[in-house]
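Good morning C.,

I know you're traveling, so I'll keep this short. The sequence:
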Amino acid sequence: MNRIGFMQGRMSALVNGQIQSFPRHHWREEFSLAGQQSLSLMEWTLDHKGLYENPLLTSEGQLEIQTLSAQYGVTIPSLTGDCFMQAPFWKASKTDCVSLKRDFLKVVETCSAIDLKIIVVPLVDNGSIKETEHEDVLVEFMLRNAEVFQKSGVVIVFESDFGPSELNRFISRLPKDIFGVNYDTGNSASLGYHYEQEFSAYWDRVMNVHVKDRLLDGTTVPLGTGNARLPETISALERKGYSGNYILQTARAIDGDHVGVLCRYRDMLQSWMEKI
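The tokens, ready to paste straight into the viewer:
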């Protein structure tokens, strides 16, 4: 179970009705709640709004995060940069692009300082790449800073709506070990992709996995009620020797028992991991 974690905020009430957002007023409590439930991995979230007010990007906040992590036995191996999706530098004007690239490098520097190893860059929704020019801006920036990332000990993984062959083409433009893929079971289900075709195309680049269920062409739903082939997909990952983490980015509880439903999903995931 030390490979199963949860997306920060999933133990707290929704913020402004959003399924995912940094839990500004409850982030501290999530450490103790996770510790009580033996959920030892938390994936941090960063929003563009209030980016530099996030405790991860302040010296006082970093110290408090490290203290809470040690106190409750909850580590932070990865971060989802929703901020990059909300304000993608690869689509920005020249002036904004410079500022947003600077933000990206600051996040990398911060993650390195607290030994956070994986940064997820979502190329979906507002961050989705539809034009070659945007892809080239992104790839050129990543290649130019590859040595910086390597020295920092941080790897960059991309969550994308590309089909299997297109994602293989994209990730092949970037060197292994520094850049990889964040595989999202729910997004694949929503887009109608099949895990066998996906793994055949880019299995060797998968470094982090988000676990959720979605309807075909639809939204996130409780695990086991959507179109994600979760038992088969998780078993396939385990058989292939995947040794990374599974992060629960699951549907929220209808009755407000967010901790309870997250623990139920954890147990479901654990059972699928064991059926290899």
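Safe travels,
E.
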